[in-house]
Amino acid sequence: MNTKMILSAVLLSSVAMMAHAGEGKKHRHNPDLNGDGVVTTAEMLEQRQTKFAKMDLNGDGYVTQAETAELKAKMDAKREKMRSEKAKAHFAKADTNGDGMISVEEFASQSEARIKKMDADDNGEISREEMRAAMHGMRKG
């Protein structure tokens, strides 16, 4: 019986993390609910109960495979919407004359702007350090 309870808790934790995975870095949940720098057992339990309640879509006290599938579908749809909006914004930025097409000149202009931004010492070359810094900056957002 204890093994089933432990496995259930692990499964629920995993599913809960999946449910919140698409929320992005800005919205990571901090289990230190009162902000005192210490995470208590009570805070962890409250966090788990809150996550469970969000996953229990019909409020019956159980999380079913159908509910987890629905949560995943919602996350996937939200993620796809964000990707689509981001792609549209990138396209609009590159399409400087607004004609709905990106010319070779517009494309080159975007590339030149990116290179110039990466070239921190403005010497016309991208060093490994500048490349690493640029990649690190892209990961940060």
From TrEMBL:
<dbReference type="InterPro" id="IPR018247">
    <property type="entry name" value="EF_Hand_1_Ca_BS"/>
</dbReference>
<feature type="domain" description="EF-hand">
    <location>
        <begin position="106"/>
        <end position="141"/>
    </location>
</feature>
<protein>
    <recommendedName>
        <fullName>EF-hand domain-containing protein</fullName>
    </recommendedName>
</protein>
<dbReference type="Pfam" id="PF13499">
    <property type="entry name" value="EF-hand_7"/>
</dbReference>
<dbReference type="InterPro" id="IPR002048">
    <property type="entry name" value="EF_hand_dom"/>
</dbReference>
<keyword id="KW-0732">Signal</keyword>
<feature type="domain" description="EF-hand">
    <location>
        <begin position="43"/>
        <end position="78"/>
    </location>
</feature>
<dbReference type="Pfam" id="PF13202">
    <property type="entry name" value="EF-hand_5"/>
</dbReference>
<dbReference type="InterPro" id="IPR011992">
    <property type="entry name" value="EF-hand-dom_pair"/>
</dbReference>
<feature type="signal peptide">
    <location>
        <begin position="1"/>
        <end position="21"/>
    </location>
</feature>
<dbReference type="InterPro" id="IPR039647">
    <property type="entry name" value="EF_hand_pair_protein_CML-like"/>
</dbReference>
<keyword id="KW-0677">Repeat</keyword>
<keyword id="KW-0479">Metal-binding</keyword>
